[in-house]
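[Q] Does anyone have a clean structure-token version of this?
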Amino acid sequence: MHVTIPLPQLADTSEFYDARRIPIALADTARAVLDPSGLGALSPHLPLIPEAARRRLHVFVPADHRFKAAARFLQALWREDRDLPIGTDLDRAKPHRVRRLGSRISIAAGRTGANFMTPAIAAVATRALAYREPGAAYDISRLRTNLLSSQPLVFNLFGPLTADPALATRFMAELFPGALANVTDILFEHSPGRGDPRFTADRTAFDVVIRGTAPTGARAIFCIEMKYSEAGHDPAPPPHPRHQEIGRTTAGLFIAPEDPMLAGPACQQLYRQHCLASAMLAAGLADNATLVFIAPAHNQLAHAAAATYSRQLSDPHTGPIPFISLTLEHAFAGLAAAGLPAHAAALHVRYTDWWLLDGELELAMTSATADAPVPDIVPVSHAPTAAPFVTRSATRRRQQCARPSVRTGAAA
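[A] Here you go.
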């Protein structure tokens, strides 16, 4: 049986992975979490949602790329199913106008923590904001009201781990077998020193840093960058001499440390983060580090950017600072296997259950067909064919081709 998105194939050369064991170990969990109805794999490409349907949910944004349009639509469905009041956004085409946007919730709802999956996760986010590092790049309005943002996703995925080190350790063991004996800290929006010349002398930071102890006793850090709808091709700041210095002095990290592509739009963020991780090791803050990139499997633009960056590394798997690219679905399956299957399933429904879009399209097509006038039919004689035409069964949709109702679970 296929899962909605197959778990990533991992290289045999990776220090932390066993390519044969991980997909097998998580396969049953992935099926239960990512494909509860046995629908099988969705198309490798997400559907192009008609403009009329996007406008109906107030999520028509012409600048959206294909994945972002689908993700925005999915977030609007999630909001409607929880009766959360719609939020607003400035209309870029008409800056003097404020428009309703279905992938946002109202400011009042945001203040209650409704962008987070549970009140406990909202409390984790509130505490992280209260104790945020100097210069931390939090957009508080975006964190509270933007359903599409990766910022609340970071808390929704990693927040439950902060109160239970044993759970966090099991989660890391599912994703990186043998890498950590225990997790000691989970840090959000972390940098050891923004602007500090000992590091990257700029504002580079990680979405999440997980610190722990390896089985050998070494101090290990996993530095994580997450994307949801973002394409991963961010505007490139001017090249920084400190990055180039770190690249040259970190033996075996980059194939060509002076390659201008490293500072280009597809690579610059991961390049800066890899340099920061190297500087942290040089400063004695850890004994080994791993840079991890996580994005939904269907966000092909983000994964293409990560693949472009990976080709700049001497050895992504066994180099001085390994670089690991994972799907968000893989992380959800790991969370379920670690002991939170219900939460992992809820995350999947909100962020990656693309069959819900298929159900909406099916409903829209059914409605359009019912409303269309019936044309006159003129019988036409056809030559017999060798086999009858068989349509795809409509049973491979969510029940009644619609999203499930979950109106009892609004986050406080």
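[Q] Thanks! Anything notable?
[A] The first strand starts at residue 86 and ends at 90.
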